[in-house]
Amino acid sequence: MFYYLYTLYGHDILFFNVFRYITFRTVSALLTALFISFLCGPPLIRWLKRHQRHGQPIRDDGPASHLLTKQGTPTMGGTLLLLGVTLSTLLWANLENRYIWVVILVTLGFGCLGAYDDYLKLTKNNSKGFSGKKKFLIQIIISAIGAYAVMSIGEPALSTSTSLPFFKNIFIDLGYFYIPFGIFVIVGASNAVNLTDGLDGLAIGPVMSVAACFVLISYLVGNHIFANYLQIAFIPGTGELAIFCGALIGAGLGFLWFNAPPALVFMGDTGSLSAGAALGMISMITKHEFILAIAGGLFVMEAISVILQVGYFRLSGGKRIFLMAPIHHHFEKKGWSEPTVVFRFWIISIVLALLALTTLKLR
Length: 363
Known about the structure:
Elements: H1 3-9, H2 22-51, H3 64-69, H4 78-92, H5 98-124, H6 132-153, E1 161-163, E2 171-173, H7 178-196, H8 204-221, H9 224-230, H10 241-259, H11 268-285, H12 289-295, H13 297-315, H14 327-333, H15 338-358
Antiparallel strand pairs: 1-2
């Protein structure tokens, strides 16, 4: 909305020219999302507590301490994340940019799916929720629509391609396989974040570090001068995605205020599925899907730990690789305190995000 003050009055009122700059609007989106989270957080949490008598169901096979410390904590706190990101982006982004709408709609689509899953868990009072197959099918449909939209909006030369880190101007044209590839990226990112969301503050920290990484990537890819200098693909319009990423960071900081241990509210599938889908969608638009795997390496590690655990359990007739999966619970079982696991995993995430950014120059 504020961008239009520049387009309408920028020539007459010089102050409005500040809304022209993506950098200013990105910082403003971050602060706005943070303010929305602080403003809406307390009443939302009170409302969730009133309507969730027993709070989020806790896994019976999880760490025993969780049954004592987390029982009764409300879930669906991801609603706060979605509210901050969506409103802030609508206020500060150029709404004529179609990429913005694709990311918002995919994010909200996964958010609604996650909210329904959280609702079923609460009404059934167990941790199962929505049917896994049905949930997976809906994720595929939303992701396929998002991938097709990227193909349709993007430049013909790059619409079905992906770039490789560490190489100059080398792209792999996937053709019609780009849609299955996009489904894998978006669904994989969404569920990987969902698996990471098992301790207070654990998932939102890495989400913010990856979002910060893509603030810079989106801005550089959308800037012709910087893209040529770094020898990465120039994709017009992607700079506006930095505003969405900034809003995600701001909303994440606001949510963390209430999710820091001991958490007043849990993110739930409402937040984890939508945040992961948003990151996957942005990586596709900027053609840096493999960079997402590096920056979000912590999410990859969590997902792989579950895959290995389940696969080995079935093949070995009941044996396990880890004490418990996802891997953050393994370290809890080994005696690490919850804050220790969270802070050490945050450090890993920050290091991986910085490593991902170095690939922009090391080509």
